[in-house]
């Protein structure tokens, strides 16, 4: 290995690795124990459930990355983006527009609505600088109130509708509790599907090629670093193991070939968003996002319009959340008009934190890993509760505990690390020297 490669390698420290990834490690331990304890769970059923959840949630989790990089923290306000997506769905279903064309029209209609919501939300964040996460929580509640007012009272009360329309409540005012997606259901997923084993073989092979290129061939730009030897070996070993397992299963027609087929339309959308997120960080706008996230005052002194940059980050996140909610609901097949958006912000934030992200750092790989780990916990919790305690409901309670616990632990670790880096706590010897100096100065006087 050349001296340049050695110089650009990241040094690996086990203690720092464990501390930085403590939440992720806890979830890995939980999942391994869960698969061992839940005897009734077959691995092919587990992968089917996990893949279903991943397809419908990954886009939403990825929409959180840009605000984190731009210094806005964890954007719980993606709830208003989800609301924009649901308003578009209601409009499309009212006019009986279905199929893939209806799905695309949903996304098109949601774009300006979500952009407006994002602009208003970003403006609020600029007025509450330093308290963006609290403000984003309030934005979600406020947006829900406005949304309820629209779908319960304005539709039919102010906005004229057909009283006998299937999605309108009896009496001609308000939307029903649930709206069937009709032919929009699976509109994206039904385009192209391939066997799960085939997809995993191709995906793991591509990962191995990328790791080799990144570690040995890629020319680094200033400031870029390669993976440590430990991480490179770990990731490569996992990819090779996955490739070997699914190649064997495919050749022998094993159980893993019974996992539900992969909807490539949804996967392509997720991959495009991941590529877009990576790409935008290489542009001038992306560099502005990063500069604002690192230090707003320095960014301002360098000629960056910080307020405008933060608003753009919020608008992008809100629009992506609206599209993510449309993808989510077309996968479910039914729109729960009054509750579908409620937990979107909380669950998406918890998922990205599980992947190793923090208030000021988030990557595509962390979002993907967090989505997989978080929803693995959701699948296994009732099974563990049934296997250990004989009551699946205990697993349901554990889900809620884990959601709030992950957010609380991650925020606590972030504050602790920030205090440590800022050296806010004085060492005893420093405190004693400061006290002696005060006493001596008083004696001299």
Low-confidence stretches: 1-9, 424-431, 441-445
> Helix and strand string, N-terminal first?
HHHHHHHHEEHHEHHHHEHHHH
Helix/strand-derived category reads mainly alpha
Oligomer: single chain
| Portion in helices | over 70%
Distance between the termini: 65 Å
What's the count of strands?
4
Average pLDDT score: 83
Shape, principal axes of CA atoms: globular
Give me the Rg, rounded: 25 Å
**Spatial sequence of strands, sheet with the most strands:** 1-4
Strand content: under 5%
State the major sheet: 2 strands, antiparallel
Q: What is the helix tally?
A: 18
Describe this structure in words.
The chain has 445 residues and is an all-alpha fold. It has helices at 3-8, 14-20, 22-37, 43-62, 65-69, 78-94, 99-127, 132-157, 196-217, 229-252, 264-280, 284-294, 296-301, 306-332, 344-354, 364-389, 392-422, 428-444; strands spanning 178-180, 193-194, 262-263, 334-336. The strands form 2 sheets. The chain has a two-stranded antiparallel ribbon with strand order 1-4. A two-stranded antiparallel sheet has the order 2-3. α6 runs antiparallel to α7, α7 (99-127) packs across α8 and α9 runs antiparallel to α10.
Sum up the structure in keywords:
18 helices; disordered C terminus; two-stranded antiparallel sheet; globular; two-stranded antiparallel ribbon; 445 residues
Concise summary:
The chain has 445 residues and is mostly helical.
Question: What's the layout of helices and strands?
Answer:
Layout (H helix, E strand, L loop, with lengths): L2 H6 L5 H7 L1 H16 L5 H20 L2 H5 L8 H17 L4 H29 L4 H26 L20 E3 L12 E2 L1 H22 L11 H24 L9 E2 H17 L3 H11 L1 H6 L4 H27 L1 E3 L7 H11 L9 H26 L2 H31 L5 H17 L1
Antiparallel strand pairs: 1-4, 2-3
Helix pairs in contact: 3-16, 4-11, 4-14, 4-15, 4-16, 6-7, 6-8, 6-14, 7-8, 7-14, 9-10, 12-14, 15-16, 15-17, 16-17
